[in-house]
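User: Please run a holo structure prediction.
Assistant: Happy to. Please share the sequence and the ligand.
User: Here you go; the ligand is PRP.
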Amino acid sequence: MRDYREFLGEVLIPEEKLQTRIAELGAQISRDYAGKSDLLLVCILRGGVLFLTDLMRRITIPHAIEFMAVSSYGVGGRESSGKIRISLDLNVDIQNRDVILVEDIIDSGQTIAAVLDLLSTRKPASICVCTLLDKADRREVPVPVKYTGFSIPNKFVFGYGLDIDDYYRNLPFIGVVDLNKYQAGS
Ligand code: PRP
């Protein structure tokens, strides 16, 4: 993989701005769920990992974490096929628990809508969605989003959990790929 600086168009959300907003979300969740005894954060792999680990450090009330992995059937690449496969399910019962789904980005909405549909059948006390990024212009199915870090335009973003061809999830900021530069070098 090439150095990302060769195809970085711009830094859309710098590290400090990300961390400030995540602290606000953690404080908000701590207030909203104060007094609830069984809060569970469910991280959708893989993109949600960095967001989860920073968010949970900003939540001041007791909570547990779990992970799910979801992938699209059929078409590869960056577009959603609209068909979802659960490749890693929860290992715990969520009945009567307060569940927050933690995502890096909602694009078409297909992934999180499918997860919401599935987990809602397991009778949680409540379930909601917390996403760092929301590309609302791309929505194909309606999704109720309770907590949003940033609404972003329809640009190809990477970093802070989001990959470009499986790399660069570790970057501490959200960058925009300059597709001309990216394709020119591949
Ligand atoms: C990304 C992202 C969301 C989903 C959003 O995951 O993490 O789960 O796509 O797209 P949608 O709203 O159109 O369904 P991806 O399938 O790229 O897997 P990854 O998290 O392992 O990178």
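The helical segments are 15-32, 49-57, 110-120, 179-184.
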